[in-house]
Amino acid sequence: MSEKRPTKKINAKAIMTDLKEGMTDAQLMEKYGLSFQGLRDLFSKLVEAGLATQAYFTRRALEKVSPPEAEATPTTCPYCGFTAREKFTRCPRCKNDTSEWLDTVELTKILTGSFD
Questions:
Q1: CA-CA distance, 104 to 72, in Å (whole number)?
Q2: Dihedral sign, Cα of residue 14, residue 18, residue 19, residue 21
Q3: How big is the chain by its Cα radius of gyration, in Å?
Q4: Distance (Å, rounded) from C-alpha 70 to C-alpha 2?
Q5: How many CA atoms lie within 13 A of 12 on its CB side?
Q6: What residues does each domain of the chain span?
């Protein structure tokens, strides 16, 4: 016979408050004394109870690994190396057309299959 591990009692309202406040998985595991698997089980119970959706937890996980937004990434001219914070399709320095070139964020999205 396999031994059943003792279950922890965690207040659903408290965990939901912590999630809404943006606590990370590591912070939740430390606060509630949970392993990674224990945290996953807790998330499943919240979904089963109708307190959260699976889509919420999927989105939450993706937010942790998403690349930075395109507007935060500077644009660099592939011809002369000029870099600017704003996007451009014609380089302000060398005047070459850069509209056919993909920026790093767009290329990453294509290579990883993560499209908006």
A1: 11
A2: positive
A3: 22
A4: 51
A5: 10
A6: 12-65, 70-112
Q: What SS3 class is residue 100?
A: coil
Answer with the residue of higher pLDDT: 89 or 64.
89
Poorest-pLDDT segment among 33-37, 65-69, 98-102: 65-69
Q: CA 75: distance to chain centroid?
A: 23
Residue 115, helix vs strand vs coil: coil
pTM for this entry: 0.51
At residue 104, φ and ψ (nearest 5 deg) are -60, -40
In 3-state terms the chain splits into helix, strand, coil percentages (rounded to 5) of: 45, 5, 50
What pLDDT shows up at residue 2?
Answer: 52
